[in-house]
């Protein structure tokens, strides 16, 4: 009996000390990072729609900057940053989802931002669509092949009602315009997808020989629509589609605001998404954008289980890669917050 208890106790101790496998994509000792650092530009639960910075050296463990204060007071919106044709950074925003215009600022160093343009899409010109005049979460993609920017956003065509508040969200569709300089824009907004399903928080990427649309499926989840309120991905051979092969959910239900970054070694993808409203962040990982994807353990605040960590109460925004020199400059200017 004593021998059995000793064996059982030894097994328990070993299991309690066991370290779970680390996620793919990290750089091994002696190897050089393909992607040296990362910036998460975001809002917070307490200060929704304003601009804050959080940074990482491995894409998994994140620290806030600027003593948890705003980094640019003028900004309003759901932050989305792109490195443009001229090597400068551009950020899109809007005063609120009721706003009719898209605001764009530009920066050489991600520290000082200057107003670049204000654009009001004429939504009434959208073919085969009768939208409400609303601009939700504008995002910018720069297409190297065509040397054009694509500005996307979501716009509904139905108001919510007391009996059916979800009607408003289910009616969201993703629209876009193009531009060569983010000062002048194509006249007619177009729908990005032909699907008759709600889509929000959409952004585009070009990788692995294809164009990819990462979306939030905005239809409410039911047994008839089990993919509702999840993050999904579709692909196309062409920038404006048609986008096909719409994936099964990459995230659990009730997740939004996806963000995609390549891993430090460039051999995996990290896809973050928010469990709203401001509850936590999840992280899914894949070697290829077509999947398969799996979800990492994190945000549990137990070191043995957390394979990624992020400060609490951060809300959605965007993640981009940085050079180590850019990371050092941001840290030197704003200062890291040790928590």
Automatic annotation (TrEMBL):
Keywords assigned: Hydrolase, Signal
Keyword Hydrolase: yes
GO molecular function: hydrolase activity
Gene3D superfamilies: Glycosyl hydrolase domain, family 43 (2.115.10.20)
Signal peptide coordinates: 1-18
InterPro entries tied to this protein: GH43_arabinanases, Glyco_hydro_beta-prop_sf
Domain of life: Bacteria
Protein's UniProt name: Glycosyl hydrolase family 43
Organism whose genome encodes this protein: Sphingobacterium hungaricum
């Amino acid at each position: 009996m004593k021998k059995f208890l000793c064996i059982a106790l030894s097994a328990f101790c070993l299991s309690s000390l066991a370290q779970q496998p680390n996620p793919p994509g990290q750089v091994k000792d002696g190897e050089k990072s393909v992607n040296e650092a990362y910036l998460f530009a975001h809002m917070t639960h307490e200060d929704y729609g304003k601009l804050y910075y959080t940074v990482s050296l491995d894409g998994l463990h994140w620290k806030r900057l600027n003593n948890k204060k705003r980094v640019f007071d003028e900004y309003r919106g759901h932050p989305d940053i792109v490195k443009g044709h001229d090597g400068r950074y551009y950020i899109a925003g809007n005063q609120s989802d009721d706003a009719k215009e898209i605001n764009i600022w530009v920066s050489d160093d991600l520290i000082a931002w200057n107003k670049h343009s204000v654009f009001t899409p004429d939504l009434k010109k959208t073919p085969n669509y009768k939208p409400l005049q609303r601009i939700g979460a504008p995002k910018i993609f720069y297409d190297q092949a065509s040397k054009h920017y694509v500005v996307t956003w979501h716009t509904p065509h139905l108001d919510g009602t007391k009996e059916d508040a979800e009607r408003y969200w289910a009616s969201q569709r993703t629209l876009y315009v193009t531009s060569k300089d983010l000062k002048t824009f194509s006249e007619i907004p177009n729908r990005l997808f032909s699907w008759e399903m709600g889509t929000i928080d959409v952004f585009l990427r070009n990788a692995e020989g294809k164009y990819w649309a990462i979306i939030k499926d905005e239809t409410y989840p039911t047994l008839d629509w089990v993919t509702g309120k999840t993050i999904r991905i579709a692909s196309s051979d062409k920038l404006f589609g048609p986008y096909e092969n719409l994936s099964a959910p990459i995230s659990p239900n009730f997740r939004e605001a996806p963000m995609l970054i390549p891993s430090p070694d460039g051999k995996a993808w990290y896809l973050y998404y928010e469990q709203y409203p401001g509850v936590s962040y999840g992280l899914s990982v894949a070697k290829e954008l077509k999947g398969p994807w799996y979800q990492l353990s994190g945000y549990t605040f137990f070191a043995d289980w957390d394979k990624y960590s992020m400060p609490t109460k951060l809300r959605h925004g965007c993640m981009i890669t940085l050079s180590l020199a850019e990371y050092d400059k941001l840290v030197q200017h704003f200062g890291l917050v040790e928590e």
